[in-house]
Specification:
This protein is α/β, with parallel strands linked by helices. The protein has ten helices and 14 strands. The strands form five sheets. Strands 1-2-5-8-9-10 form a six-stranded parallel β-sheet. The longest helix has 19 residues. The termini are far apart.
Length: 348
């Protein structure tokens, strides 16, 4: 009797598991109907044969990578060759060229500077062989030359100013001269030399604005001492900060400034690694960095000076605004045209 009841119960469970209940079916059907009402099917048709207008390819100017030491890996170089071939990127920018992973700078027991460009050569040889060019971010500080121990990222990029600005100047001068000897002045003058990365954020620069301007001036003079037509610029800030101040500093102190660079993320707040900060998207076009930079140029640079400007994408997240000052073959009155188009393809 007991076994008979168990058998009937098992059959009941089996039938229940494979037979949908009417109430369950009606709920599912009702949900489908609601979903279809809220999100109807959309059909998008595109005719690739029609030309709407000129395609802005500013994003191909510069692409960003992580840190310099990664560029020594075979898979990194293989992937860079692929994106250059498929996407057409022209320049590449990354952090940490001067920090200790590449062993660029050390000092002997007497405190004399020792340079080692072996790994930088291997990296830059690979980039040039791929067909791209370096967008040289001069950072971070070699430990032996650092004035402090504050760093950023898990790989310990030192973010402090140099303890000896003469030694820093000689390092930059020696490195740029080495590149000139290795690759030739005609090649190197096509590069961009950018001083540091986002010094307006204390996570990347332990000094203040005045300290950064000192670093910039010393670095610019070191580069120009090798070749006056090599391009140097900054301030490489986040959110178009310090752009007016940088232009004013360069104009007042007659410091070379061949381009202005800034990283316009399009958000407010700072998103950094696992910090968990909430970022807000900027939707007001007035707050875009480009008009502010052009305003600073117009009211800071004398009308007798010449400049040009164009925009490029440093990284998928960032815009690079360049305002070439000095012998750039473009009169100030044409900045209005640059401001309207603001594209690397135009290049004024």
């Amino acid at each position: 009797m007991k076994n008979h009841l168990l058998l009937k119960f098992a059959r009941l469970l089996l039938v229940s598991s494979i037979t949908p209940l009417p109430c369950s079916f009606s709920v599912v059907a009702q949900n489908v109907a609601v979903d279809q009402k809220v999100s109807p099917v959309r059909t998008i048709a595109a005719d690739y044969s029609k030309v709407k207008g000129k395609h802005d390819t500013f994003f191909r100017q510069v692409v960003g990578a992580g840190r310099a030491a990664e560029g020594l890996r075979a898979d990194w170089q293989r992937d860079l060759a692929l994106v250059h071939r498929e996407c057409g990127f022209k320049y590449i920018r990354f952090h940490g060229l001067l920090q200790d992973e590449l062993g660029v700078y050390s000092e002997d027991r007497q405190g004399r500077s020792v340079y080692n460009f072996q790994y930088v050569d291997a990296l830059y040889d690979a980039i040039l062989n791929i067909g791209m060019k370096p967008f040289v971010e001069l950072s971070f500080m070699p430990q032996a030359l650092a004035s402090g121990a504050k760093d950023v990222f898990w790989w310990k990029g030192n973010i402090t100013p140099p303890k000896d600005y003469d030694k820093w100047q000689h390092l930059i001068q020696a490195l740029v001269q080495h590149w000139t000897s290795r690759y030739g002045a005609e090649e190197v003058k096509q590069w961009y030399f950018e001083v540091w990365n986002e010094p307006n954020l204390d996570i990347f620069w332990s000094g203040d604005q005045a300290e950064y301007f000192k670093l910039y001036e010393v670095t610019a003079k070191a580069i120009k001492s090798v070749a006056p037509d090599y391009r140097v610029g900054g301030p490489a800030t986040a959110g178009h900060a310090w752009t007016s101040e940088t232009i004013g500093f360069a104009a007042k102190n007659r410091v070379a400034l061949d381009f202005i660079s800034t990283h316009d993320y399009g958000v407010t707040g700072i998103g950094f690694d696992e910090g968990g900060q909430q970022l807000q998207v900027i939707t007001d076009p007035i707050r875009n960095g480009a008009p502010l930079i052009h305003h600073a140029i117009r009211f800071t640079i004398p009308t007798s000076r010449r400049l040009t400007s164009f925009r490029s994408l440093k990284e998928p997240k960032a815009t690079l605004t360049q305002c070439l000052i000095g012998r750039s073959l473009i009169s100030l009155k044409r900045t209005a045209q640059c401001r309207r188009h603001f594209t690397a393809a135009l290049a004024c």
